[in-house]
Design brief:
The structure is a homodimer of 293-residue chains.
Chain A lengths: L4 H12 L3 E5 L15 H16 L5 E5 H5 L3 H16 L3 E8 L3 H11 L10 E4 L5 H14 L2 E7 L6 H4 L9 H13 L11 E5 L7 H7 L5 E3 L23 E5 L1 H4 L2 H4 L3 H21 L4
Parallel strand pairs in A: 1-2, 1-8, 2-3, 3-4, 4-5, 5-6, 6-7, 7-8
Helix pairs in contact in A: 2-4, 2-12, 5-6
């Protein structure tokens, strides 16, 4: 039986007691020297597997960055499929961070690739970009709802240039990202789980924590996927407004600061990733549950 | 030696005397019955090759829709790589319509996949979505300029819902898509070819032809990639404002109305695609060169 994505996510968060999402951005240029001497595909394959195994107890979810697999050509997509299987075998939920967006039957083809029942790469959720409008999001939302999967729509991204268009003041006085947030809240009503959250979530960068209170007001039923902690300068301690009274409602993503933690901590890279993930898991839990009633 | 993408495109348009881009959206559900009885990958492989061969004399460029290949999983990406080789062998320029978008090192990884010198899938150009801001576009632009490749930034898309965010009135009174257009014009100055056009082009839907005059004023050096002719309701005869006095400056995309033309015209699907492409090539040429001095 289909279970709503937000309900599945809440269970995973409670079982693991973790709101941490480890971002898998496998970039051979950042790998430790001991992984050298083989093909890039072999190196990415082993690096990803070891990272997944090392963080599986600390993270509820992992987020694969599609670009680093696409960069390797067709064998990279094979590796992505294998990493997805590994993540699921380890009991992790898996998001594909692919920021896909297109219209009509093309959006349906993307959904068929990642969200449909017989998808060749059956991720639990997919990130989606909103520039093309509401009708471009609907095929993703419908596909996800049907299979108990989810999407996260980009609302306010973590990069310095996110203001260029997302912050543009509209004629009504509000920035564009609030318009997008309102549309996401409306679309998300289509599939609300028992936990009160929707299978349609929102991406909001940790680098703009002051916006979280307003975004939460506009999107009460959206799970926030919050990237930008660590290497991009965002701090977990600023993210309290994203969480509800039960310590749910948001997932915090750390990628480079976990998977390349060996560069600061030294030692084995998988061990360093485990330690960084364990530290972050606790830090996020303290923030998320500080206001718990 | 690197040749600017716009110059390469202009040469291809002149050699073929064609501003037509055939969109390759291989959807097995729309294939003719004679292609049945094999795997979806085999069917897409053969369909794509036959279409490419049949339209190679009529189109300067083909545009592959990534979603329909991703839908087939890893073997689909192998097929995409083979179709790309076939297109190049036939003397066609090849655009990947993937609407990629991401930040910093992730955007660079996408560029490495499709635009860099040693890209595993070396397309001549890539479509890119602007919601993440100028800093998210720069890595694509730099990579493209270095290798004589190009990008097309989504400015105003062809779908009915494109107005939801693209048409939002900003505080200055202008719609958002004009803000994006201005940013694209500015970014495009980075790499202007001898022909006066930039390797940074813009997507503007044929379904909104009245906007072309204003978009051309704001983006004098952008090649317009114009989808939406045919199945989506756009008409080639409305597109004159996109072309310059030499009949250059824009490419017109037709996908379903060409590759599935057998459904209206009957007969062999590749032959029907050839006839539809030949008809459209002439129709577009008449529009493009009507104002030629």
């Amino acid at each position: 039986m289909r279970i709503n994505f937000a309900d599945r996510l809440k269970e995973a968060v409670e079982v693991k007691d973790s709101r941490l999402v480890v971002g898998i951005d496998p970039d051979p240029e950042l790998f430790p020297p001991e992984t050298e001497g083989r093909t890039a595909v072999e190196r990415v394959d082993e690096f990803g597997r070891r990272i997944l195994e090392s963080v599986a107890g600390e993270a509820s979810t992992v987020k694969f960055q599609s670009a680093f697999y696409e960069k390797l050509g067709p064998p990279g997509i094979e590796t992505l499929a294998e990493h997805l299987k590994t993540a699921h075998r380890l009991g992790l939920l898996a998001i594909l961070d692919a920021k896909r967006n297109d219209i009509g039957n093309t959006a349906r083809a993307y959904a068929a690739a990642y969200l449909n029942r017989n998808a060749p790469l059956p991720f639990d959720a997919l990130t989606v970009s909103p520039y093309l409008g509401v009708d471009s999001l609907e095929p993703f939302i419908e596909a996800a709802a049907e299979t108990g999967r989810g999407i996260f729509v980009l609302v306010k991204t973590s990069n310095p240039g996110s203001g260029d268009f997302q912050d543009v003041e509209t004629a009504g006085g509000e920035p564009l990202y609030l318009r997008v947030a309102k549309a996401v809240a409306e679309l998300g009503k289509f599939d609300i789980g028992k936990c009160g959250y929707s299978s349609v979530g929102a991406v909001s960068g940790a680098t703009y924590p002051k916006l979280l209170t307003e975004l939460r007001r506009i999107m009460p039923a959206q799970i926030f996927l919050i990237p930008g902690v660590g290497a991009q300068g965002g701090r977990a301690t600023d993210l309290a407004p994203a969480f509800d009274d039960e310590g749910f409602g948001a997932l915090v993503v750390a990628a480079r600061s976990v998977i390349y933690a060996y560069r600061d901590r030294g030692g084995d890279y998988a061990e360093a990733a485990y330690e960084a993930a364990a530290y972050l898991r606790k830090e996020i839990n303290e923030v998320a549950t500080a206001g718990r009633k």
